[in-house]
Amino acid sequence: MCGIVGYIGQKNSLPLILEGLRRLEYRGYDSAGVALIDGGLTIRKKAGKVSDLVNLIGNEHLEAQLGIGHTRWATHGEPNDVNAHPHWDCNNEIAIIHNGIIENYTTLKKKLQQVGHTIRTVTDTEVLVHLIEEMYKRCNDLFTAVRLALLEVEGAYGILVISTREPDKIIAARKGSPIIIGRGDGENLVASDAAALIEHTRHVMYLEDGEVACLTRNSVVTKTIHDEEIIKQVDEITYDLEELEKGGYEHFMLKEIHEQPDSIQNSLRGRLLVNDGTVKLGGLEPVMEKLVNTNRILLTACGTSWHAALVGKIMIEQLAHIPVEVDYASEFRYRNPVLQPTDIVFVISQSGETADTMAALKEAKRKGATVLGIVNVVGSTIARGTEAGVYIHAGPEIGVASTKAFTSQLAVLGQIALLLGRKRGRLSQEVGKALAADLASIPDKVKKVFSHEAQIKYIVEEFKDVKNFLYLGRGSNFPTALEGALKLKEISYIHAEGYPAAEMKHGPIALIDENMPVVFIVPKDAIYEKVLSNMQEVKARKGRIIAIANEDDTEVEHIADFVIRVPRTYSYFGPIVNVIPLQLLAYYMAVARGCNVDQPRNLAKSVTVE
Ligand code: F6R
What we know:
With 610 residues, the chain is an alpha/beta fold. It has 3 domains: 3-237, Aminohydrolase, N-terminal nucleophile (Ntn) domain (Glutamine Phosphoribosylpyrophosphate, subunit 1, domain 1, 4-Layer Sandwich); 247-427, Rossmann fold; 451-598, Rossmann fold (3-Layer(aba) Sandwich). Helix 11 links the parallel strand 20 (344-349) and strand 21 (370-375). Helix 4 (124-139) packs across helix 5, helix 14 (429-449) runs parallel beside helix 18 (574-592) and helix 16 (477-492) runs parallel beside helix 18 (574-592). The protein is globular and about 75 Å long. The structure holds fructose -6-phosphate (F6R).
């Protein structure tokens, strides 16, 4: 949600910032802008994509060794040229870019207007730059002015601020929205995401909430907003630039779908001990005793990660026999949840920056539970905010629609379930071995699904003009159905609903006619026959059926109009394989409808506002 990047050094900052914005564009693409200081303040900004900003700049010769840039996901104010960031003060001296929401901006705006500030836009961000201007008058020092201004701000922010009066500094601050500083040689960079830094440096410092930094070419000074100096540790980014590129695929989403045999393998590597029928998760060692003895686990997350949590509940309850509750992180915080000190709360997040999930984490901590993370982005706020946890190691996920993070979250949840089942004596070593071997076989099974891609494209041609879709499944394939429906909605804009197959007759069956395609996820598990009956109910009402069924199934083809085959697994792990054709269906549907797959309208990769 909003990408921000800044550079101070000896090079021309503009190409560097534009390249950084291109890498961050998945965070927001409503508008883009840059502010440069070379003597005066130069601002260029434009509604639309980074490419629109590049066209606006055209051949204009802009050169500056200090600059900041922004790509916006609109919160306050429509996405037009005026509301695009950067925003500036009354005297054209200070520029700001911001990711987050200033909640008390109307009160601040009134006060500032009363003392003579002219506010040009309806954004919350512009108010903040005028507040900084006001403080700057009092102290004549940008670092201090930003700190003082932030003391009056309620809400969330990751900001960069520059001033023509101190053309050798970038001030950065964070509360709720990520800020990462990249340390270079004679240069320093700062961004909302390591993706914008990795080409220039691997040495990074993560700002924490309530911290402010002053970057010059050769130094970074960090303080709290209350003026206490702090020494930050320098960490290293471990992934490569190629992992951030499309690697010959037309879209990041397709690349990430195809990466899943590897990304799932990476989630299992060094952890799954097939010969012992168990799992080793070093990240959970410090809390293992609590975890094994707990009477209740809560899983909380948003969106696709929440769907993973729903599958995780079934895995943990079935294999480890611990009661599990699942909550939307956005609801958890506001429902005053009852938590015991012995409760374990897992927060699940790809980005590790989702504001609702972060808020749930804080609430669970405040109530005394042990809070653990299942996170993809190493060093992210959620990863650092939890007591312990497991990285899913899916690698950078750039496509806005989450794919490989989902399957890796499931691979990790499956391993946690297996580990707890073994440690609690619920699973014998023999059963543990069979389950571990099944998990280990999943990357190859996922690979096999890709052989049906041509068939999926063919099915898409049949259905690309429909307005609605239903996705039905039972047990752990009900969340799979939800995930399939979400993928279709978000990238192809076709209305889709996921339902437990047996619930269909309690309402949604009224929707079924010859225009309603229904995707059934119907593996040969304990409830297979029941799902076949549900399929018959749809067939009897002329609904058109696409079935995701096992390779050895000979019955489904007599009922379904189309059958996409998937290899068999234990039902607990089935969603990891069964979701693959659903991801491909959504992808090819979006492509066939001419939608922008990697940048679907109104969405952003990491939702850092509540
Ligand atoms: C859907 C999608 C979102 C995210 C949700 C949580 O494709 O990507 O629903 O799953 O915003 O994001 P994370 O997992 O980063 O906390």
